[in-house]
Amino acid sequence: xxxxxxxxxxxxxxxxxxxxxxxxxxxxxxxxxxxxxxxxxxxxxxxxxxx
Length: 51
Hints:
The protein is an all-alpha fold and 51 residues long. It has 2 helices and no strands. The termini are far apart.
């Protein structure tokens, strides 16, 4: 019989890793969104200062 890997042996760990991955993706999306919003604010501010 083949030995199971650590991930297969513990379904709790697999569920935790999946949850962490989803939360990580959510954080990355928030960071990118905030950076885009700040870039738009900076562009608007730059246009306002020049004119």
